[in-house]
Design a protein that fits this description.
13% strand, 38% helix, 336 residues, alpha/beta, 4-stranded parallel beta sheet, globular, Rossmann fold, 13 helices
C-alpha cells in the first residue's frame, strides 16, 4: 500500500513556542496601546512570527484555542478587521459567533451592556467590539468578566490596526528606533492615527503628523506633553514632511467631514495633500507606503502609488491575521 509523508504539521505551533518571556504579559483586555510597554509589543511580534509560520502552511489551522469561543460584535461596518479576527480565531480552532447587530435584540431596545452580558452568559470567552462611541470597549471591560478587544471605538483607538502596522514595519526594517514615519490627513477623526502615535512612540519612531490645521486636534501639543510622548511633531506642508521619510501613511479622508466645512474643498485637499508619485519621490528611495483602509483612490493617494512596489497595503492585511492570532492566544492562554 502506498504511503505518503504529510506535507504539513497542522496540529502544532513551532517548537520554539511559546517564548520564555511570555510571563511578562499582564493584559486581560486590549483597549489601546497606551498601557503597553516596548517589551510587551516585542512579545506580541515574537508570537506573531510563530503565527505567520502557521499561515505559511498548506493547512492554516492549529488546535491551540480549541474550546474557546470568540464573538465579534460590530456596531459599525467593517471588512478587514471583522474578517481578519474571524479568520484568526478559526485558525486557532475557536468557535466564532458573529453578532449581526441589525438582526439582534438591539433593534428591540436591548441595551449595549445587556447585549454583551447575554454573550457572556452564553459562554463567550472574548468579545471583539467595534462601536461608534469612543470609550465603549472601556465600559464593557468595567462591567464584564470576560476579555474585550477593541476593534475600533469612535475617534479614539484601534490598537490591533496599530500593532499590525508596526509589525509590517518590523518585518521590513527590523529595529524601528529612529524610523521616520509621516502620517497624512484626517488626524483629528482617526482612531488609527491615535493608536499609532502611542505605538510608534513606544517603539522609538519619529512621527510627523501632516494635515491642514483644521484636521489636527487642537489639544495635540498638550496631549504630547501630558502623555510624555517622544518623537512626535506636526507639519502643515506635505513636501516638507516627506523629506527623508522612511514610511508614509495616508489616512482615509472621511467625506462626511467635508460637509462639516473643515476643508475649503475636496479639490484643494487633493492638490495639497494627496500622496502621488512626485511627492513620494521626496521621501527616501525605498520608503514604504502604508494605508489602514479602506482607500479612497485619487483622493488621499493616487492609484499608481497605492499599487506601486513601495506599497505594502495588502501585506498589512495579511499580517493582520497573524497579529490577531497572537493577541487572541495571549489573552486566552490563562483560561485553557
Amino acid at each position: 500500500m502506498k504511503t505518503t509523508q504529510p506535507r504539513d504539521k497542522p496540529n502544532v505551533i513551532p517548537e520554539t513556542f511559546p517564548p520564555p518571556q511570555i510571563s511578562i504579559w499582564r493584559h486581560q483586555h486590549i483597549l489601546d496601546l497606551d498601557s503597553f510597554t516596548k517589551e510587551e509589543i516585542d512579545l506580541v511580534f515574537e508570537i506573531t512570527d510563530a503565527m505567520m509560520e502557521v499561515l505559511g502552511r498548506e493547512i492554516k489551522k492549529v488546535p491551540t484555542l480549541r474550546g474557546t469561543t470568540v464573538a465579534t460584535v460590530f456596531y459599525e461596518p467593517s471588512t478587514r478587521t471583522r474578517a481578519s479576527f474571524e479568520l484568526a480565531a478559526k485558525n486557532l480552532s475557536t468557535d466564532v459567533v458573529n453578532l449581526d447587530i441589525p438582526k439582534s435584540s438591539v433593534t428591540k431596545g436591548e441595551s449595549f451592556l445587556d447585549t454583551l452580558r447575554t454573550l457572556q452568559a452564553l459562554g463567550v470567552d472574548v468579545i471583539v467590539l467595534r462601536h461608534s462611541q469612543s470609550g465603549a470597549p472601556y465600559l464593557a471591560a468595567q462591567h464584564l468578566d470576560i476579555s474585550i478587544i477593541n476593534g475600533g471605538d469612535g475617534w479614539h483607538a484601534h490598537p490591533t490596526q496599530a500593532l499590525l502596522d508596526l509589525y509590517t514595519l518590523r518585518r521590513h526594517f527590523g529595529d524601528l528606533t529612529g524610523l521616520k514615519v509621516v502620517i497624512i490627513g484626517d488626524i483629528l477623526h482617526s482612531r488609527v492615527a491615535r493608536s499609532n502615535i502611542w505605538g510608534m512612540s513606544i517603539m522609538g519612531c519619529k512621527v510627523v503628523l501632516c494635515a491642514p490645521p483644521t484636521l489636527l486636534p487642537r489639544e495635540l501639543d498638550n496631549f504630547i506633553i501630558r502623555c510624555h510622548l517622544s518623537g512626535i511633531s506636526k507639519e502643515y506642508k506635505l513636501e516638507a514632511a516627506l523629506q527623508e521619510a522612511d514610511v508614509i501613511m495616508p489616512l482615509r479622508l472621511q467625506f462626511e467631514r467635508q460637509q462639516s466645512r473643515l476643508l475649503p474643498s475636496l479639490r484643494e485637499y487633493i492638490q495639497l495633500y494627496q500622496l502621488n508619485s512626485k511627492r513620494l519621490s521626496l521621501a527616501k528611495p525605498n520608503a514604504l507606503v502604508l494605508h489602514p483602509g479602506p482607500i479612497n483612490e485619487d483622493v488621499e493617494i493616487s492609484p499608481e502609488v497605492a499599487h506601486s512596489a513601495q506599497s505594502v497595503i495588502e501585506e498589512q492585511v495579511t499580517n493582520g491575521v497573524a497579529v490577531r492570532m497572537a493577541l487572541l492566544y495571549l489573552i486566552t492562554r490563562g483560561k485553557r
